[in-house]
Design a protein that fits this description.
250 residues; rod-shaped
Length: 250
């Protein structure tokens, strides 16, 4: 049987730490309203100078961290295939005669993706369907469960896509303000330093957007790889179920 998914932990910890750092900096921006010290501004001063666009960027950062933690828990292997699941299921399905009622209840009670997939096949078996029907229903149900896991990762792609765009938008607004200021101030005309100051302030939002987007994209591919590995484990469990079905009909 082939489960077709839609195309490991220390790396994820490093990535979420980067996002937490970015999110904490963005969230702290409103408190950095005090005038910057003479000379070079601090990081918090620059973030505050990023303007209102830093607010949606902060929200993006918070969402990325929240969904990262939620997916870390939801995609643990024992949440997808509970410990002892395949052994207990084989025990029920290889009994003489197979205890399909309890096997179905066991799958339902597991509340796991592998249980949701195999209970469909058990129901077909109970109804006396042919092997081809049982196998096809199992393959379709398992592929559906894998697809659900992949769909839960879309939020990371969305955040990784819109964060740089928000940063670019903030930069464009900042450049407009910088040029307006220079154009309105006769004394500033011809002074590159005045324009340069406004430009580097405007670039803050682009830097913030990329700081959020890059780790979030890494997280997305990390979880996608994890889902692929879990799909392989589910395929093995489904194959064992079909072996039990074949054994019962010999």
């Amino acid at each position: 049987m082939t489960i077709r998914p839609t195309r490991a932990t220390s790396a994820g910890t490093v990535v979420v730490s980067a996002i937490l750092l970015a999110g904490a900096s963005v969230a702290a921006a409103p408190q950095a309203a005090s005038a910057p010290k003479a000379g070079q501004e601090t990081m918090l001063d620059l973030i505050f100078l990023g303007g209102y666009v830093m607010i949606p960027l902060g929200i993006c950062s918070l969402l990325a961290v929240t969904f990262f933690l939620e997916r870390i828990i939801a995609l643990r292997e024992n949440k997808i295939i509970p410990d002892g699941f395949t052994g207990k299921l084989r025990e029920l399905t290889t009994a003489k005669p197979p205890n399909l009622e309890k096997a179905f209840e066991f799958c339902v009670e597991s509340k796991a993706p592998i249980g949701n997939a195999i209970k469909v096949a058990v129901e077909k078996w109970r109804r006396g369907r042919a092997k081809e029907d049982v196998e096809k229903s199992l393959e379709d149900a398992a592929s559906h469960e894998v697809s659900k896991m992949n769909r839960s990762l879309r939020i990371f792609r969305i955040i990784a896509a819109i964060s740089p765009l928000l940063g670019l938008l903030g930069t464009v607004y900042g450049l407009i303000r910088a040029f307006q200021t220079v154009a309105a101030d006769q004394k500033a005309i011809g002074k590159a330093a005045s324009l340069a100051h406004g430009i580097y302030e405007a670039m803050v939002t682009t830097a913030a957007g990329l700081t959020i987007a890059i780790p979030t994209l890494v997280i997305y591919y990390y979880f996608q790889r994890k889902v692929d590995l879990l799909a392989d484990e589910m395929e093995t469990a489904c194959d064992e179920f079909m072996d039990a079905y074949q054994e019962a009909h010999q």
